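Annotators were shown the component list below and the corresponding predicted structure, then asked to write short factual statements about the assembly.
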Amino acid sequence: MKRPPVLMRLRIREKERGFGLWLPLFLLLPLLLLLLIVLSPLIVIAIVILRRRRRLDRLSPTARASIDILCSPRGIRATFGVLCSTPGLHIEVRNNEERVYVSVI
Amino acid sequence: MSENQKKILEMLANKKISVDEAYRLLSALKSEAPAPPDSTAGPQTTAKPKAKYLHVHVHGRGRKDDEHDQHDEDAEDDEEDDEDDDEDDDEDDDEDDERAEVVNIRVPVSLIRSGMKFSSLLPAEARDKVTSALSEKGVNLDMRNMKPEDVEELIAALGDLEVNVVSDKEVVRVFAE
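Structure shown to annotators:
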């Protein structure tokens, strides 16, 4: 069963300075969802205006793809699928002095 | 001779790959080839467990794998505060003074699957750019022709993947488990 990530661990160390963070994604994701729901009418209005003024085609492919992803059920499903697949992701890059560590749980 | 075998031999002829690599690729193809039809053969009983993670390890040559694995475990399981962690790291650094950069990535296979599905949402221009960029690197993967079955086949084949590249300065390991 797919479940969204619960925690993200982030640690960055630079010479003698460094910090570590536990990001509680289970708290942040509902807030993000809420923000998206609140902003969605504005996004729809922006798209309608752009279409009427025939400026949608002038947007860059990246911007158009972002709109497609945000505004289509298929795109939302795919985004959620990617998000739910991230638990277990582990990235670590380090040398003698610096270290970047990201882990999704 | 299959199409893939021809490609491998062409790459060898063009000196894109070494003899060893060609041999390894041909062996892998041979093992992947379907068994001849046999009426007595039942369903496949020795199915390999599906790979869950794709690992990419890059580290300085001469570094012991045990140390590396131990460090991974420490990194994953350690839930102590960061000060303790930093102390551990300092100890590791002392042990490997001449260590080059270390890159250690573990990607869930499900993320690869989702990412490949996600790529179908890319606009045609972006897909063309990706395809041309890949072909410049010698990877002939046309994203426009990718089907869900192809993605599944690719992911199933990941289970057998094991790449070891050893050079004077670095050791690169890519494997699935």
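Statements collected:
1. The first strand of chain A starts at residue 7 and ends at 14.
2. Chain A touches chain B through 33 residues (CB under 8 Å).
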